[in-house]
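User: Show me a protein chain along with its predicted structure.
Assistant: Here is one chain, sequence first, then structure tokens.
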Amino acid sequence: MINLGFLLNDFAVRLHTAVCQYSITGQFIERFCSIYQFNDPYANEAKLQDFRILANKHNCPVLCCINQQAAFLFVSTDSYLISIGPFRFSSNHLLKYSIESSVLVNEEYLQSLPVHDAFTLMKNALFLYNLFHNDLLVEYTFIRKNYKINEDLYKIQQQFNNIIFENQENETRHNPYEQELREFSSIEEGNLEQLKKSITEDYPGSVGLLSEDSLRHTKNLGIVIVTLSSRAAIRGGLLPEISFSLCDSYIQQIEKTNDYTALTYLMRQAEFQYAQLVHDSKSVRRNCKSQETPPKVRQCKEYIFLHLHDKIFIQDIAQELQVNASYLAEVFKKFEGISISDFIMQEKIKLVKNLLIYSHYSYIEITNYLGFSSQSHMGQHFKQITGYTLRQFRNTFKSENFITEE
């Protein structure tokens, strides 16, 4: 059984406004608010009271704007109507529902109201609504019910028809889908030579226009290519967390870059780096009869990646995956061609290499950061795997750029 009073008071505290409970016929029951002498000049607004009753009939939380200044959120249950507000939006929104109130408020009062972004309000509204309803309400429905989106949808369809018409009229076309398949299949397979060939193919057609601004178009194109490359790499066996993180890094850099040549280089470099990562991943198991990663092996690698900053024990991994430790070790070694312990050390040393090149952390800081027992312990394994001491490696590669030449 839900403690409704506690829940509504918690919402009042988190959203820094008043939360009121009404009957389904609009009769006031109780107000929750932790702000001393909170003032709601709209409490007796007749139009808002009428809207409140109508809002109870919606099978969705309802946002209502008052005089394009303040707003309320209404969430209905089978027995009650919950009103949250007033508050202000952090940016302008085209809401479907609004009322013109005769209540006059000054700028000082409006500035005193809490400010919330649409995403936060939607998350809270959906959480509260879904607690009391069996049919799950999702973000898409909430947006469709509360925001004026038909105009945007009309513009999309209008632009779509214009593009189709103009392309037919001018006998122009997009680049062939088959070429795109070859390009991203090359990444999925870790085939760098095939990737080079697919990128340099000569074909009729061109890339679609992604923005009327040429720089924004190039950035958008880069974001699309990096995103598709990251997903192709995951299909090829790259750990999702690694692929997603690399994708985030490239996209952030694309957003910061305003040079067309650099943008082109970044998007192509991303493709080659993903293809190389897949190639390296596949090469360690090239002698295996099955190329499909067993779920437990994939989950084991994901666990290791997420805990590289800790001391990792095989027994802990096995317990997390609910499998026998010996069985997990055997399956991992058979498929990856390396023991779990060696794989953990290999991944830690990869991270050590990155930190030595791309950070200013001291050796002892890196030692502590990655859970090594001592600096000499880390240095011993580092020398064994790379052939360099920590100092030799940092001095040799520190000045190199992150993006390497092909």
